[in-house]
Amino acid sequence: MYQKKDEKKNPLCFINPVIKKQSDEKSSYEEGCLSLPDTFIEIERPKLCWVEYVDEKGSKKEMKCDNLLSTCLQHEINHLDGKLIIDFLSKLKRDIIIKKLSKNKQDLDRIVV
Predict the structure, then answer these.
(1) CA distance 113 to 97
(2) 0.85 cut: is pTM over it?
(3) Of 40, 73, 96, 109, which is the most exposed, with the fewest CB atoms less than 10 Å away?
């Protein structure tokens, strides 16, 4: 779904979001992350989630999210909890990605993982 030039944007603002409930039904998306350049991982997550948050006006809200919005919110809330997409992988796969990312960091003397 792409937005046309003349359409009004309706950004969403979630302050201190908390997932209150998740569905048993799953969906998979190939996820990427700015924290891990050029890395994409197919991740299975709950298809639906109910998120409690504070909006930009300071009001407490709850929203039922599905499909891609549900995936995006879960991804970002994982960041708030200190979890990255590579944390969904086995140790072997995670280590391979970290090694590849380390080789791509030419300007750094050390890699902190």
Answers:
(1) 11
(2) no
(3) 109
Query: Residue 96 to residues 23, 27, 39, 83, 111: CA-CA distances in angstroms?
Result: 32, 25, 11, 18, 14
Q: State how many domains the chain has.
A: 1
CA 90 to chain centre: 18
* Catalytic residue (one of 42, 44, 62, 76): 76
Catalytic residue status for 76: yes
CATH of the domain at 92: 3.90.45.10
pLDDT per residue, tens digit, the chain (113 aa), is 455 677 888 899 999 999 999 999 999 999 999 988 888 999 999 999 999 999 999 999 999 999 999 999 999 999 999 999 999 999 999 999 888 888 876 554 544 43
State the pLDDT at residue 110. Answer: 47
Domain containing 29: what range? 15-104
The answer to the question of residue 8 being in a domain is no
How many C-beta atoms lie closer than 10 Å to residue 113's C-beta?
A: 9
3-state DSSP assignment of residue 22: strand
